[in-house]
Each structure stands twice: as C-alpha cells, then as structure tokens.
C-alpha cells in the first residue's frame, strides 16, 4: 500500500472543521453547537448571535472558518442578507441555511442566492446528525476542489490509473473513505460527455448530474451497490452543464488494494441516448400496433403453424360471441367450417414469409350462425417462430350483392334471348310476307308497314347492344382512330355527307365498342345535321344497327351537291372529337342528349347517344357535348 496515499487519506478524514453558527437565540445556539460536536468529533462550532458581528469575524481572518451555518429569521439582517454579503467576499465558503422556515419557496430562493445547503431545524438527534453530515460533505468538497489536481493524482492515483486519461469513455474515480464519496479523478471524455470542466467536478458527488426526471429507483440501486461495495450497472437520465438531457449508462465497481480493502470506486459513463431514443420509438410503435390490433375494424387472429390460435383482437371476440380466453387455444377449423386440417396445414407450409395471401372462408359464431369472410393471411417469423396473422372481414353484404347481380344477369340473359330470337323471328316472317304482298298488289300502305318493320328492327338492335355491353368482357388494344373511322363510315348511310379525318392518333380501346360509338355518332350527325332532303329509306337516326343497311357507293368520304353535312374526326391534347357543321344541339338539351329514349326525330330510337355515353363510361372516358367550330354539334372524349 502507498504510504503517501494513506497519509493523505488520514489527513482528509481527521482534519478538524471550524464552523461559525449564526443564531440570535443564544440558548438555542449553545444547545445546537453542543449537539453538533457530539455528532461529529471533527467539528468545532463557534456561535454568534449578532449577524453583523458574525460578518466581521468572517472578514477579520482571526479565525479561519470552514463553514457558516445561519438562521433565517433574525433582527436587523436575515439569513439571505448574511448569505449575500458572504458570497460577495467569499464565494467558495460553504454556507448552510438552518431555519424553522419550511416553505419550498425559501429553499428555492436560498439555492438561487448561492446557499450550499438548506435544512429545517429540529430538536431531535437525527436532524443534527444530518446537519453534521452536510457540513462535513460541503467542507470536504471545498477542500478537495482547492487541492491541485497534479498533487491529487500523484498522491492518490497509481500509474495505471493515469492511463484512464486516454480511455474512449468517461471515467471517474471516487473516494469512499471521504465524506459523500467525492470525485477525485475525471478524464477528458467525462468532461466532454457532461459539458463540465474537470476542475468543476472535482470534490463533488456524481449526483450533481441528476435532475427532476432522473429515475429514483435507479439512483437507489446505484447508491445501495456503493454502500455494499459491489459492482452495478444502471441507466440514468442525466443533465449536462447546459441543461440538456442525455441517457448515461453508468457502470460502477470497487477497486481493491493489496490487502483486499476498497481503495476507490471507478465509474464508467457512456452516452446511450441514440439507443434509448430508438427503444422509445420502438415502444411507441409497438403501442400503436397494439392499438391498431385491438381497435381494428377487421377481425384479427394470430395462430401457429398447427392451427392453434394464439391471440385475437376484441373485434373477433365481439363478432363471434366468445371471450378472448375462450378463443385462445382453439384451432382455425374449430371456427371456420369451410377449412380442412390437412388442406390448411399444406397451404400454410407453402406460404412464403412476409407475402400476404388473399382467400375467402367462413366463420361460425357461438350461436351456430355462419357468415362468409375475406381473409388476408401473412406469415411472420418472430424470434425463430412461425406465426400467421389473419385479417378477416365480413363480406356478407358483398356476397348478397353478388347473388343479386347473378340473378340480374340471368334475367338479362333471358331478356336478350327473347329479344334476339322470340321477337326477331316473327319480325323476319313479317318482312318476308310484306315482300310477297308487294309482289301481289300495289298499295301506299306497304311503304308505311316497311318503315314500321325497319324501326322495330332498329329497336331490337339497340336493345341487344345495351344488354351486350353489360355482359361482354372488353378487349382493350391500340386502335388507329383514322382507319376505324373510315371503316365505320362505310357502314353508315351517309345521304351525301362528307367525312373528314384529321388525326393519326391511336386509342387504347375495345375495337368493337369504339366502332359502335363512331357509327352511332356518324348516323346522328347525318340525320340531324343534313341540310338536304333525307331519303325515305334512311331512318337510321341515333340507332345502333351495324349492318342492316349498307352504304351506297357514293357514301365514302365524298361531298354532295345537295349540301350534305361534313363530319370531322380529330384529336385534342387529351383525346379525340367528332363534330359536324349541321344545325347543332341547343344548349338547353346538351345535358339530356345522352339519356335513354332522348330523340328529336320521329324515326329515332332514343338509344344511339345513350350507347355512346355507355361505351365511354365503360372505357373510363369523359364525354362532353358542345357547339362545333362551324356551328354544329361537337362530341369530345377525354381518354387520359
């Protein structure tokens, strides 16, 4: 053992402490001085009842006082006045305010004014023992701070300990043999960690890093380990000199001398704020996930790879009529009547990790009723254990709607069968009989009957188009608008009209449906836009017939001397348009032209433009009607 170290420790422990006790009650001061000296043999207590005289004694230097203990309520000068004047001249002299005042604001003001300690008076021995201890601690801190660091290192630390200066973590050594276990060594890393200069921490207990949010339980654990002379590791929320918080992982261990006695305590300090921040974020995210799990509108089930249910959310319990404890431990096939054990286990075995799968199933309630479900299942590997999370939704309403649609489609199929066969067959018979009748006699009624039969044929064609568009699947492909427009023009009785194609654009569309759209627009333009006399055989206003009348040889992209309408197909920056230079559509009718049954012609079916709007809607296009550049009607389609 180093004799110089032992001598230094002996001097530190045995050196006397001179205390000046300022108290206007002489009898109380005498009792207090005697009690303090009994509690600690190192203390020599001098009393003074006059605050001004006490200040003179401190200034005179005749007696070197190590500490001042002062009452608060005194005549002439109170305790704060004395403290203020002592601090002006002796900023490092320990000053303890010992008063009957117990208000919190007094303590706060005392520390703000520079008091070393604040303690309430009491007549029992415990209070004086506490006061004696605080006097010792305050004086020892001051004495240690005044000792040159080089001398402390030389007399108290070994060569091996000086190597700690280069350590990458904060390190302090504390002396358990001195009052309050003060710091006797700190390295530069500790200074960088805490923001204090080394000179500022010497002689202080490490508790100066603690604050109002420091965990008292962790502090108690640390204090207990030091008292029991055993190592300890804990994590504390500490405060730097500038007031900022940081998480400090503190590892404290005793250092023993050759005789097995504790020589120092070493404390290793690490800033673990990033890790604690991440842990807090993880806890927060976990809390949010748990909240989502419990309060999700979907039913959530967690089960193992053998189908055993491990966890359920509250929604699952409410929907099935079970408690959580009743559901945990059941198997998936206990609740899903549509599942089979062998098939389910085989499906789970092939399920990729972290790739959700969707399928449909069913769940059975406690009362025996069942309902269809949509299940989104994902396999997660947690700590080496395969778990399956199923998010389940009641699709009873969806299934009801699907059944209703199936029924509607069946009715529609029956309707189209009636229209296409049961109506058309007798119509064809009537047309054939009318031709025979025309050969036998000459009557002006024959033309009227022929036009009526043609109108019936148009109505049947449009009705079939409306029914078919709801059922047939679309085949979307790039379609050259210019080529299709010219093809459509050949299928329309143009009555001297002209087609102008001013675009090379390609549209992604179902070719058959786009053809139906263009032919209906062309027929509408020819019928309503022509300025010449319409032939009696042409009653194709707004209808969907695609071939019952073929165009004559003069119908393809040619003009007419009788003033036929010009129909233009062109492109816009977001789609295409079809317009004519005819009479146009009145503004008050533009909102209703696409309604089923709308027509301004006695020969029209009222379905032509309605079919146009349905084809556009099926493709997701927006169609608008306005005045054309030459005053006619313009139909514009936005396809992007």
TrEMBL record:
Pfam families linked to this entry: HATPase_c (PF02518), HisKA (PF00512), PAS_9 (PF13426), Response_reg (PF00072)
Keyword Glycoprotein annotated: no
Entry annotated with the keyword Phosphoprotein: yes
Compositional bias per record (Basic and acidic residues), positions renumbered to this chain: 533-542
Domain of life per record: Archaea
Location of 4-aspartylphosphate modifications: 71
Every Histidine kinase domain range: 418-640
Record key words, sorted: Kinase, Phosphoprotein, Transferase, Two-component regulatory system
Residues in PAS domain copies: 156-229, 285-335
UniProt-annotated stretches for the region Disordered: 528-567
Enzyme Commission number(s) of this protein: 2.7.13.3
Domain Response regulatory: 18-136
Domain (PAC): residue spans on this chain: 230-284, 357-407
Uppermost EC category: transferase
GO molecular function: phosphorelay sensor kinase activity
Catalysed reactions listed for this entry: ATP + protein L-histidine = ADP + protein N-phospho-L-histidine
UniProt-listed PANTHER family: HISTIDINE KINASE 1, TWO-COMPONENT HISTIDINE KINASE
Protein name: histidine kinase
């Amino acid at each position: 053992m180093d004799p110089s170290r032992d001598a230094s420790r002996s001097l530190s422990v045995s050196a006397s402490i001179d205390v000046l006790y300022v108290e206007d009650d002489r009898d109380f001061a005498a009792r207090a001085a005697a009690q303090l000296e009994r509690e600690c043999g190192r203390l020599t207590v001098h009393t003074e009842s006059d605050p001004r005289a006490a200040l003179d004694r401190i200034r005179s230097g005749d007696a070197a006082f190590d500490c001042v203990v002062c009452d608060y309520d005194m005549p002439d000068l109170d305790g704060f006045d004395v403290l203020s004047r002592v601090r002006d001249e002796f900023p490092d002299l320990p000053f303890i305010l010992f008063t009957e005042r117990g208000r919190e604001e007094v303590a706060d003001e005392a520390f703000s004014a520079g008091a070393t300690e604040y303690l309430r008076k009491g007549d029992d021995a415990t209070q004086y023992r506490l006061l004696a201890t605080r006097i010792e601690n305050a004086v020892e801190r001051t004495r240690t701070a005044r000792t040159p660091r080089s001398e402390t290192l030389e007399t108290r630390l070994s060569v091996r300990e000086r190597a700690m200066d280069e350590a990458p973590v904060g390190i302090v050594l504390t002396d358990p043999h001195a009052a309050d276990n003060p710091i006797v060594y700190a390295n530069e890393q500790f200074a960088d960690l805490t923001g204090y200069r080394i000179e500022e921490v010497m002689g202080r207990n490490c508790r100066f890093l603690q604050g109002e949010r420091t965990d008292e339980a962790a502090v108690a654990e640390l204090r207990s380990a030091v008292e029991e002379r055993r190592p300890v590791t804990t994590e504390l929320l500490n405060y730097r000199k500038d007031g900022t918080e940081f998480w400090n992982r503190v590892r404290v261990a005793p250092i023993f001398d050759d005789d097995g006695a504790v020589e120092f305590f070493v404390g290793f300090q690490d800033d673990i704020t990033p890790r604690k921040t991440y842990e807090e974020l993880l806890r927060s995210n976990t809390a949010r996930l748990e909240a989502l799990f419990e309060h999700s509108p979907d039913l959530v089930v967690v089960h193992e790879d053998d189908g055993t249910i491990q966890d359920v959310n509250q929604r699952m319990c409410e929907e099935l009529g079970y408690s959580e404890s009743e559901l945990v431990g059941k198997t998936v096939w206990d609740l899903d009547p549509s599942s089979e054990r062998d098939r389910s286990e085989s499906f789970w075995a092939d399920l990729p990790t972290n790739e959700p799968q969707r399928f449909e199933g069913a769940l059975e309630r406690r009362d025996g009723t069942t309902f269809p479900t949509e299940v989104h299942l994902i396999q997660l590997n947690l700590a080496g254990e395969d778990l399956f999370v199923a998010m389940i939704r009641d699709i009873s309403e969806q299934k009801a709607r699907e059944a209703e649609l199936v029924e509607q489609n069946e009715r529609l199929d029956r309707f189209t069968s009636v229209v296409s066969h049961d109506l058309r067959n007798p119509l064809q018979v009537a047309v054939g009989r009318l031709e025979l009748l025309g050969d036998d006699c000459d009557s002006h009624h024959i033309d009227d009957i022929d036009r009526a039969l043609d109108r019936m044929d148009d109505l049947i064609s449009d009705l079939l188009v409306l029914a078919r568009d709801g059922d047939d699947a679309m085949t979307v492909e790039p379609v050259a608008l210019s080529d299709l427009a010219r093809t459509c023009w050949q299928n329309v009785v143009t009555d001297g009209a002209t087609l102008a194609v001013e675009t090379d654009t390609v549209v992604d569309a179902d070719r058959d449906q786009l053809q139906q759209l263009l032919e209906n627009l062309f027929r509408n333009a020819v019928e309503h836009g022509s300025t010449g006399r319409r032939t009696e055989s042409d009653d194709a206003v707004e209808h969907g017939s695609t071939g019952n009348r073929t165009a004559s040889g003069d119908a393809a992209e040619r003009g007419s001397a009788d003033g036929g309408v010009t129909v233009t197909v062109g492109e816009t920056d977001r789609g295409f348009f079809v317009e004519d230079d005819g009479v146009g559509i009145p503004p008050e009718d533009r909102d209703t032209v696409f309604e089923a049954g709308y027509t301004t012609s006695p020969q029209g079916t009222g379905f032509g433009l309605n079919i146009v709007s349905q084809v556009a809607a099926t493709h997701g296009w927006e169609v608008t009607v306005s005045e054309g550049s030459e005053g006619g009607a313009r139909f514009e389609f936005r396809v992007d």
